[in-house]
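Working notes for the structural subgroup meeting. M.R. asked for a predicted model of this chain before we commit to crystallization trials. I am recording the input and output together here so anyone reviewing the notebook later can reproduce the run.

Input as submitted:
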Amino acid sequence: MKARVDAIIQREQAEYLERIHPAGDALISEMEAYAAERRVPIADREVALFLEITARATGARRALEIGTAIGYSVIHLLRGMPDDGTVTTIEPNDEMIRRAGDYFERAGVSSRVRVERGLALDVLPRLEGGFDLVYLDAVKEEYSDYLRLSLPLLRRGGVVICDNLLWGGQVAGEPRSPDQSASTEALRRFNREFVAHPKLRAEILSVGDGLGYGVKITD
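Returned structure, recorded in token form:
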């Protein structure tokens, strides 16, 4: 979910990295423009590329995403996976599902995507495990529950990635508005839980708006 600030690196460094970062192809650029114009939450470009690189590096064949939006991250994940790789993605919003479906069709990946319509906390308990990669990018107050329910679905040695853990710098400071207080405090609790989780070897990277990265080390 896009909420980037230059909270760690200096602004000129952030602008430099933005300039040298490769632009996406026509479809990816269209998705970025659509999301920006309509304020649809998608991953930062560097986060999406990180997902693609991670999928490729780990040889992931099955990925689980919580928070589809328009399918931006799904397409990046699939571009890093082998031809028989699949993504299961969870989304409650019908309009987002329709929009994502259109992009999946145009990207030629529809047959490799399973969209689970519903709230993640309702959907996760009915999924079968064996995922190689899990990506969390939905309701911040629910991150701890997402992790609790998705870790049993992740194979040992699999990777879990969580977006927005710096939350625009608010986790290290004060919420910028009262309506951000609950999500900020929830992420503070989650961050402590994530980096110390007994089933993970994990850290938080200064990529995008703060990216949690963990490897499952035990069942």
